[in-house]
Design a protein that fits this description.
Elements (H helix, E strand, L loop, with lengths): L3 E4 L5 E4 L2 E2 L6 H12 L5 E2 H9 L4 H20 L10 E3 L3 E4 L5 E3 H11 L10 H13 L11 H27 L3 H14 L4 H13 L3 H19 L5 H11 L21 H36 L1
Parallel strand pairs: 1-7
Antiparallel strand pairs: 1-2, 2-3, 4-6, 5-6
Amino acid sequence: MNAMRVHLFGRFRVESDQGELAGLEACKVQALLGYLLINRERPHSREALATLLWGNYTTAQSRKYLRQAIWQINSQMQDHSNGKQVIPIVAEQEWVHLNHDLDLWVDVLAFEEICCSARDTPSHQLSSDSVEALQTAARIYVGGFMEGCYEDWYIWERERLQNMYLGLLGKLLRCCEARQEYEAGLAYGQMVLSYDRAHERTHRQLMRLYYMAGNRTDALRQFQRCAAALHEELDVEPSQLTMRLYEQIRADRLDDLSPAPDEARNVGPSTLPEVLTHLKRLQSLIDGMQDELERDIDLVQAALGRTG
């Protein structure tokens, strides 16, 4: 392993040939590096970064904390740069940007590159190499973006990347159907439902896969799971598309045995139930931020009580 490897999915960590780098445990340090990596195309003003990450402090304090975080990242990462002495973060008088000469592998960037490379290719036309690349991308996504941190900008990035991941799984699922690899397709569908149990489109795909694999009983059971999830999560009934598929399977026939077509390129919510699921997930993330803020307030109040 020559390049340092930065993992932003799941638990944040940076690895080199010597192992995992220490000294980058502070959430704000991780937030700064993560933000610069995700927004690597342009420089950022010191004021904007200081306000983004330390907006509750005075201007002088926030700029001081920014300087300290930059020093922390540069000192730790430069010590593990295989003697190249490349400064990771270039800090000018008023501007900060990531050094483009830095040899880094970043999981989020690798994931996005693979997803974009296959975006315009229909599932049934994917080459074996493309399918293998998409499977690699699915393995790269080991958890939400920078889990355990609740900076405001994390929420939108986390949602965007998760939607991209679910779209990737859906593409692999449809590819498996086209190749009649039903068992693998069922596994990808279950992975989608582990994130969103009321994802009706995926329930339909699983119903098709079960039936085409010769398992009508499990196809009908999948409909029952779909109906239960929609009722419990969103208090709605299955759509007409889902009901039509259910009736066809009950009658032991499918009007269309060709592979399900690819969905629109936008992998976000496309129906009202999916929009509601999306909003509920967002509410859960906001609740997590609120809990974190309340814990911080309690700690500060306790500290004030001790000093008083």
